[in-house]
Amino acid sequence: MFSKETLAGFNTRKTPFYYYDLKLLKETLSACKDAANEYGFQVHYAMKANFNERVLKCIQGFGFGADCVSGNEVKKAVEVGFPSNQVVFAGVGKSDDEIITALELNIYCFNVESVQELEIINDLAAGVGKRARVALRINPNVDAYTHHNITTGLEENKFGINQWELPACAEYLNRAQNIWLEGIHFHIGSQITNLTVFKSLCVRVNEIKLWFEERGFNLKILNVGGGLGVDYYHPDENKIADFKAYFEIFNQFLDRKPGQEVHFELGRALVAHCGTLISRVLYVKNGIKKHFLVLDAGMTELMRPALYQAYHKMENLSRNVELEQSIMKYDIVGPICESTDCFGKEVEIGTSFRGDLIAIRTAGAYGDVMSSRYNLREQLEPYYTE
Ligand code: LLP
Prior knowledge:
With about 375 residues, this protein is of the alpha/beta class. The protein has helices at about 5-10, 20-40, 55-60, 70-80, 95-105, 115-125, 165-175, 195-215, 245-255, 270, 305-310, 320-325; strands at about 15-20, 40-45, 65-70, 85-90, 110, 130-135, 180-185, 220-225, 260-265, 275-285, 290-295, 315, 325-335, 340-350, 355-360, 385. It has 2 domains: about 40-265, Alanine racemase (TIM Barrel), CATH 3.20.20.10; about 275-385, Lyase, Ornithine Decarboxylase, Chain A, domain 1, CATH 2.40.37. Ligand LLP binds near residues 90, 150, 190 and 227. It is an enzyme of class 4 (lyase).
């Protein structure tokens, strides 16, 4: 929950806005770093989850690398201080300009998603007189048992190189002059809470790794992606994801040769809980069957509920539930002209009134970064406490 001082800060500001608890962010980063260090694992922060500059600087300060998915993310990572030899670049559709930008900045590695892309990177690297390090993103066909829209490692998904294309990749890598195979890369999905799926991933990584090693490739890195989920239902009880349990699975089930590095790309688990979307109730509409709270924040500020029916815990910060409120059920909606602009149906929350502050929790990952200007909405000014 929020301290009195933080609440006082909220009350002086124009809503809606994103609030970041940088102290919680640092505690989370430190927990992740300690757990990873125990096994000698390296973590690159998946910048797509949140590219707020202060958040990025904190993360960089803890020595994480950066996992980028656009030329602009690569440039931003380097700009805020991530050493370029700790920057990796993934994505199914890297443009020529983006590839050249990354080559010029001497990033560590490209996570390559097709044989066609290997050829383009090789040609562009030749053009600028460089040799690019690449990792092959391979589609492991492992089900992550998460929301359909955020599953990435099944054959029906657009991501990664299919296993039947590996001989063509190996053949090309053997003759390409301007690329160098650094390792293999996987990512099976996001918001994964059933950790046993990572065991299935390890089994598949071991098989594919062996396939390459039998063909004479020496893989320096095994990159197993991100995906560790967070508890959207209990943000106060489970503020920090269970990094130890997550890394322990890979430590136990991944075959590593001495000197072989294991890389991770965590996004959500690092930044989700430290962010909250703060908004105010504009109108309370009482219907016969339903009551609505109309907020000044909508799907333009936080798209996840409209896009994936994602749950975010909501709280009325202006009233004290225990002392003065009876619990009501409201459909909590935004002001946008779309029926899907709804943060939750039949949400149990204390009786609320115009002007009350409503916190939409666990919004630090895939929140502000996915916002849009639809309906010509205002750009938000974030608020921080250290
Ligand atoms: N690596 C790759 C290749 C990825 O595609 C992703 C996320 C990550 C790492 C980071 O995954 P994380 O640790 O955050 O789960 N907008 C959706 C999530 C999309 C995730 C896309 N890829 C949401 O709001 O739930």
